[in-house]
Queue: 4 jobs
Job 1
Amino acid sequence: MAPSKLKIALLQLGSFPTKQAAIANALTQIRSAAKDKGAKLVILPECWNSTYSTDEFGRSAEKIPGGETSLALAKIAEELGIWLVGGTYPEVDAGKLYNTCAVFGPKGELVGKYRKMHLFDMDIPGICTFSESSVLTPGKEFLTFSVEGLKIGVGICYDQRFPEFAAVYRQLGVDFLIFPSAFDTYTGPMHFELIAQARALDNSMFVALCAPARDTTKDYVAYGYSTLCDPWGRVLCRAGEKPEILSAELDLTLLEDIKKKIPVLKQKRNDVYELVKKK
C-alpha cells in the first residue's frame, strides 16, 4: 500500500558571494531538512548558487551532472537517502546555456533534468526589465518522476504563468508540480501566491513554489515567500522574505478525495476542445 503522507521541505536559501559558499550553505540546510525535519523530499530554489543575472549565467554555468554543484547534490542525496530537487543553476551543453533543474534520487543517481521552457522576458520600464532569452536557450522536454507512488513534475518560475503547461503535466498523471521560482518584487505580491493556488486548483494537484530569500543588495531582487498549495487551492504554508526551511507533510488522500467530489478532470469537453502535447 502506498503511503498516505509525504514529508517535504522547501529551502528558501540566502545568497553568498561565491558558488562554493552557496553550495556549502545548501548542504548544511539540506542536512537540517532531512535530519531535523524528517523530509524525504527536499526542494531548492531557482538560481541559488549564483547571482540571477544575464551576465552571470555564462560565468557560473557547468555541466550537468558532471559539474561541482551536481556532484555535491548527488553526494548529499545519497548520504541522506533522500529525493532532492536541486533548484536551478546555469547549465552549459554543446555551447548553449540553459536554466536547468536537476533531480537526484536516494542513491545519488541523476533522476533527470528539466530545462526552463518559457524564458523570462519582461519589460516594465522603471520597475523590472529582464531578458533570459538574450543568453539562454529554452528547453523542450517535460520531466516526471515518482516518490513513494506520488508522480511529480518540474517546471521553473515563468513556466507557471502558462496554464497549458501545468495541464500537460496533469495529462501525464502528475499530482505534485514543483516550480523553483525567483519572482521579482513587483509582480510577486500580486501574482506569486495567486498563480500557485490557480495551478493547484485547476489541476487538482499539490503545487510548490520554492524561492530564494530576498537580497536587496542584488540588481535583481527576488520576492521570497516560498509557497505550498494543496489540491483544493488552499495555501498550506508560506515563508517570509528571509532564509527559511519550510517543511510540511502532504496528505496524499486529498488527491483522490477531490477527484471524487469535484471530478473536473473527467468532465472536460474533449468533443469541443482538447490539449495536445507535441512530441
Note: The first helix runs from residue 19 to 35.
Job 2
Amino acid sequence: MALSPPGPQKTFLNACLKLCRRAAGASSMLPSLVVSALFILLTLVLAHAARRLIDNIIKDPFIRQLLQEFIAAAELCGCCFELIIVADNFGVSTYAVFLFLLTIWWSLNWGDATACPYTHMEDVVKGETDIRTAIIKSFFELSGGMLVFKYVQLLWSLEIAETHRDRAFSDCSTDLQVPVLYGAAIEGVATCLCRLASKTLSDLGPRFSTAIDSFIATSLVVAAFDYSGGYFNPVLATSLKYGCHGNTLIEHVVVYWMGASLGAIASVYLYRHPTVQKLLIGEEKEKEE
C-alpha cells in the first residue's frame, strides 16, 4: 500500500518505540522468523477474541454477519502483510508453509464469513442472495482489509526484527510481472480452479477435506506467485497492493477484481455442467442428487 509522509505521527511513534525497545531489550533478541510468527499469532488471537465478542453482544444476524466479514478480512490481510515479510526474507517455501497452516485455521474458525467479495457474487448468480446484500458485505470486507494496515504499520514500526526495519513507512511495488490481460487470466483461471476444488470437496466430504483444500489453494498461489502475486481475492490484493508503484487503478481492477471475480462466476456455471460433475464427483454422486 502506498503511504503518505508520516509527519508528526512518526515523531510520536519514535518516542514510543524507544520506550518499547528499552523495555524489551535489544531489537535482535528474537530471530526474525520467530517475530513474524508471533505477530501472525497475535493477529489470530485478537481476531478470534473480536469474533467471540461480536457473537456475544450483537443480536441482529445480518449486522453480526457484516462485522464477522470485517474481522475476517482484517485478519486475512493483517496476516498476509506479515507473510510478505516472510516471503521476501525466507523464501516462497516458508511462505507456503505459513499460508497452508493459516488457511486451515481460517477454514475452521471463520464460520460463514469468507472475507472475499466474489463468494457473494456467486451467491447472486445462484439466486441465494441479492446484489444489495453482496455489495454491503463486500464493502465491510474491503473496509476491514484497508483499515488493518494501521495496525500492521504500528507493529512494523516497533522494528523488533531486522526484517521489519524501515518497512512501516516505505513505498511498495506491484507483484504483477506479466502484461495486464495475462495477469487477469492467471488470477481468473486459478480462482476458478480453487473454487471448483472447494465445491467438489464440499460435496464429496472426504476425510481431511480442509487440509486438501488448503493444499490445493496454497499450491496455486505458489504457482502464480512470480507472475501475478497469486492473490485470488480482490480485497486481499487491494489491501496489500493498491497504490503501489507499477500499476494504474484500472490495471489493478482488471487483474485483481475482474479477473478473480470472473473466474469465480465461471466456476459456478462449470460446476453445474454434467461433464464437469461427472469428472469431479462421479456418476454415483450425480445419480444421488
Note: The two ends are 46 Å apart (CA to CA).
Job 3
Amino acid sequence: MSSDVTKTVQKWHASFKKGTDFDSWGQLVEAIDEYQILARQLQKEVQASNSHDFTEEQKKTLGKFATCLEMRSAALQCTQSQEEFKLEDLKKLEPIIKNILTYNKDFPFDVQPVPLRKILAPGEEENLELEEELDAGTGAGLTPSFPSRVPGTLLPRLPSEPGMTLLTLAIEKIGLKDAGQCIDPYITVSVKDLNGIDLNPVQETPVATRKEDTYIHFSVDVEIQKHLEKLPKGAAIFFEFKHYKPKKRFTSTKCFAFMEMDEIKPGPIVIELYKKPTDFKRKKLNLLTKKPLYLHLNQTLHKD
C-alpha cells in the first residue's frame, strides 16, 4: 500500500469528522457542504477505472458511504424528508472510513452505492437542468413515483399581546422561467438573525396548488411566530423555494428570497430571487436571473 493511499484515507476521515462536527453544532450549511465534497471525492475514487488503490469490494463500500453522506445532506436540506437519516446513524460509519483498507464487515445500512454522476457541486445543477430538459423530451410515458409530500407545517397565529404586532405573510406566487416543470414545489419560511441562526420554528407551505405560464401559485398565509417587537435588529425572513427532482430522488432548493425588517409594512411586496445555496448571513448574494422574476407577497399587520 502506498503512503499516498493512507494519506487519502486520513484526509477523508478528517473531512468526515469536520462534517459531523458542523452537523452536531447545528451549522447545517457547512455540514452539507462538507458531506457533499466528501461524497464527490469518494465517487471519483469509485468511478476511476484506472485506480488500483482499492479493491472492488472497498469501492463498493465507498460508494455506499457516499450514499449515506447524500442521505444525511438531503435530510438536512429538507426538514421533512421521509427517510430521515440521522447524525447518529452517520457517526456509526466512522470506523469504516477510518479503516477502509482493513474493514471487512458488512455495511451497516442497506443502501445502494450512489448511481454514477449523481452528486453535484453547488452550481453544477444548472448544467444538469439543460440535460433534464433534453431528457424530458424522450421520457416515454415514465411516471416517476414521488414520495408523498407532507401537507406543510404551517403554524397558527400567536395569541395577540397588548401593544405588540403580529405579521401574516400571504405567499401569493413566485415567477420562474421553468415554472411548469417544477414538481411538488413548496416554500420553506424561516426567520434568522444576522448569523443565520433560527429565531422561530421553520415552517413549510403545502405543495403549490397551480402553475400557469411563468408563475407557481401558492395563495397561502404564513403566520410569523414572534411579535415583531421581539425580533432582533438585523433579523430577516427567508423564503426558500424547493422542488422535488425525480432524477436525483431528493428535494432541492432552487432559489431563495428574503425580507428585512425595514420591508415589513402592510400591503403587497415583491422581492428578488437569489441563486442557491441559501446564504442566511446575506453576504454573497447573486440574483437568480436578469429577468424580472420575483416572489409576490402580501403583508398584514395585526396590532392589539
Note: The helical segments are 3-24, 28-47, 56-77, 87-91, 94-98, 125-136.
Job 4
Amino acid sequence: MAFLQEKLLLFCLVICSSLLSLVSSRGSVYQPPNVERLTDRFPRMPITRGMATLFGASNIHLKSNGSYVDIVLDKNSGSGLISKNRYYHGFFSAAIKLPKGFTSGVVLAFYMSNADVFPNNHDEVDFELLGHAKRRQWVLQTNMYGNGSVKTGREEKVYLWFDPTEEFHQYTILWNTHHIVFLVDNIPVREVINNQAISSVYPSKPMSLYATIWDASDWATDGGKYPVNYKYAPFVASLGELKIEGCMTQNISSPTTAECSKNATLSSSNTVEGANYARLSKQQMVGLSWVRRKHMFYSYCNDTKRYKTLPAECSAH
C-alpha cells in the first residue's frame, strides 16, 4: 500500500511540475469568454482571388488549390501578399498559424495601409505578431496611424491565451466610420472609437490589405536585443480562410456612399457600416475587458515615460 502511495505521489509531482513549466513558459492559461462569431457571417475567399504577390515570390507557396498559402522568411528574403483591391472600410480576416521554435526578430504582419499612395500622410491599421526568444511566447501588438501620425505610436501589446504555432487562429480587423476593432478568434482585443479626440488621426482613406513575414531584428524582440537567428530558418507562417467584405474603390481620395454600396461584396443590408457593426455588444465588451485585464501588458496610454503629455484620446470617454 505504501509503495502505491509513493508511486501516486511521484506521478502527481511530475504532473504538477509539467503544469508549472507550461505556465512559466507561456503565462497563465485562461478560458476565453463566449462571444458572437462575426467571422461566420462572411464567406471565405481563396487567397488567389483576394491577394497577389507583394515581394519574395519564391518564398510564397500556395496550398489546397489556392485556399491556403505559406509565406516564408529565410536568409535570402521574407515574403508578402497584397490585396488585389483597395477598400474603404470593411471586415478583413484570416486564419493564421505561426512558425514554431526560436523566432526572435521575426514579425508576421496582417495589416492595412495606403503608404504606397500617401507616403507623407498615410493611414495604417496593424496586427503585428512578434517572435520570441528562449521559452517566451509570441506577442501580439496592435497599432494605428492616421494621416501620417507615425511619430505618435499607438501600440498595445498582449500575450495570447493559446499557442499560435499549434493550429490556425483567426485575426480580424473591423474598420468603419464608428470604430476600429481588432479581434482574435472573434474576441475583441482592442477598440479604437472614432470620437472628437482622435478624429484628426482616424484612418480615413482607402487602404490595401497586407500579409507579410520579415526580419525586424532591430526592434521586434525586446527592443532588438534578440535578432533573427537563421540557424532556425526557414520560418514558415500559414494563412487561409481569407474573408474580405468592404467597399472596393479606385477613388483614392474620397469614395462616395453610392460607390461603396455598388461595390460591396455582399448586399447593402449586410454592410459593416450597419447598426450591427456600429458598437460592441455586451458579450463583446465582456471579451474586450477580459483580454485587457488578463493579457494586456503594454498600452501607449500608460506610457508616461514616452509621452510627457499623453495623446488626447487616452483621456477621452
Note: The mean pLDDT is 87.
